[in-house]
Amino acid sequence: MDNGVGHRQQGYPGSRQPHSPTYRVSTIMLAIYPLSPATLGSAIDLTKRVFDRPGFWWEQPGFVLWLSLRRNFVARSIFRLLGMGEARYWVVADETGLVLGVTGLYTYLNDPDACWLGWTCVDPEARSRRIGSQLVDFAIAQSQSTGRSYLRLYTWDGEEAAVARHLYQRRGFQLTRTEKLESYSLLYYELPVQQG
């Protein structure tokens, strides 16, 4: 089965999904799988390490990852209270199940033309292996099947995000807005997506 970016599919032990795309990353074969209860803990640990930030509990990446696995009335209600329609996440895991990277897509109720790139990160010890590039390419491919015209994201202007900003720009994302906050700026990017 093709996932829209020309990669073959392979199953993941313990996943409920029959197939997951497989990518060659460095010299090790890694696959992108839908976030599952089995990978949730490792994914939350990774996002806590990468996105060490203050904020309300509903703004934390771990909460959004956890909530994205809940497909019930309460979860949908919380998403609506947050102004969101839905969220889906995927992980790159090694053969032991350790999550090396996370990406996702979510929608805002007040932005029907776009889906947004959700908490995307790579384990600092696994960087320079093109995992981030593969995750962003995967998210772009997934966004093409949503029926929406744009894939949007926001990041910040800190030095820690420079590599990610460069990756987004290489993929064709254009800076559309800058929002100055107290000690940093949020940068908003947009990519027109062609429907697959």
Description:
The protein is an alpha+beta fold. The protein has one domain (9-192): Gcn5-related N-acetyltransferase (GNAT) (Aminopeptidase). The protein has helices at 37-50, 61-68, 73-81, 131-143, 162-170, and strands at 9-10, 20-25, 28-34, 84-93, 99-108, 114-122, 150-156, 174-180, 185-192. A 9-stranded mixed β-sheet has the order 1-2-3-4-5-6-7-9-8, with helices on both faces. Helix 1 (37-50) runs antiparallel to helix 2. The longest helix has 14 residues, at 37-50. The model is unreliable at 1-20 and 23-27 (pLDDT under 50).
Characteristic key phrases:
about 200 residues; alpha+beta; Aminopeptidase; nine-stranded mixed sheet; 5 helices; globular; disordered N terminus
Number of strands: 9
Low-pLDDT segments, ≥5 res: 1-20, 23-27
Largest sheet: 9 strands, mixed
The named CATH superfamily: Gcn5-related N-acetyltransferase (GNAT)
Helix run count: 5
What's the structural domain tally?
Answer: 1
